[in-house]
Amino acid sequence: MACAIGALIMLALVFAFPFLGFSTHGVGHVMRFADTAEALLGDHYGVLALVLLATTVAFPGLYLAALVYLCLGAGHQRLPGAIPLARLLRPIEPWMMSDVFIVGVLVSLVKIVSLADIHIRASFIAFCIYSLLLLRTVTLIDWTALWDAIAPAPEPDMTAHAGASGRSQSLVACGACGTPFVAHPRHRCPRCGKRHHVFRVDRIQLTWALLVTAALLYIPANIYPVLSTVTLGNAQPQTIAAGVLHLAESGDWPIAAVIFVASIVVPVSKIVALAWLCIAARGRPAASLARTRAYRITEKIGRWSMIDVFVVAVLATLVQAGTLMSIEPGPGAIAFAGVVILTMIAALTFDTRLLWPERAPGNAS
Ligand SMILES: [Zn+2]
Q1: Residues with Cβ within 8 Å of residue 200, at least 6 apart in sequence
Q2: What is the Å distance from ligand 1's center to 180 Cα?
Q3: What φ, ψ does residue 328 adopt, rounded to 5°?
Q4: Among 69, 120, 157, 340, which has the highest number of CB atoms less than 10 A from its own CB?
């Protein structure tokens, strides 16, 4: 809990001080963290502002505050709102991206360090500490102990029997509190009340729909510029691929590689991998483990694609030197953010039980 409180204090400090300083040819300005959202809103990129604030501040802030409240109230009988709050925590985790944002800031700095003087200010340090404490908090949580303190585990369901798969008996483990129970249609978890779906093959259609939409959105994300650099009135639009090439040409190989992997390799391989998993879902049981591993990797790495979106947000806010030089976001950035979000949701909707086909009766172990 100390980590969570520390992270919340650091988050408050992030808003109290300047974030980064920028100056070129005697013209410069100081950027605060909140300016990123304001600048994006001003450029009519409210969607990006919303994504940025939700993933770096709102979701983590809600997560930390809820956790502190639950830990403080642990042991109290009937803590108001404890169960709904606790149920929120696990689903929020993949959407907390303060660590991705820091990498985005560092990439932005490398991109403009040759054009201008950059000064790191107190708020950026506070943001890094906040992000580290947030990661530490997430890894330290003992979910079993937390749920035991909030709601006692119900009696185990005695109708389940060994020798048959959980899927054939409609057994599910609650995604929020981990309690195993038999899910009847429209059944709720006996411990936390979360509604569960019985195994449904047609759920794969939803994953397909999201994947196809993401694949279609990936086209405008690459055709339209993600940002344009305006130097003395001359606008130079830049697409994702052009950005990578430009970095590589100017010798920033490591950063070019990071952007290439995050913006091109990860989204494409994620769409291909999820499509492959959907098609191959009911293949040989021997490959189930490999497929589950492939799924876990896809699920984990997807959020890192957001780096390029954050780079656009930071550059558009920071590089504001009037007519001398400024950077504006492009429509490609919105399409790309859509791709990242849709592929993340597609991975979440994929039912991993599809990877573990039913064994023929008699083969059950
Ligand atoms: Zn539950």
Answers
A1: 351
A2: 8
A3: -120, 145
A4: 340
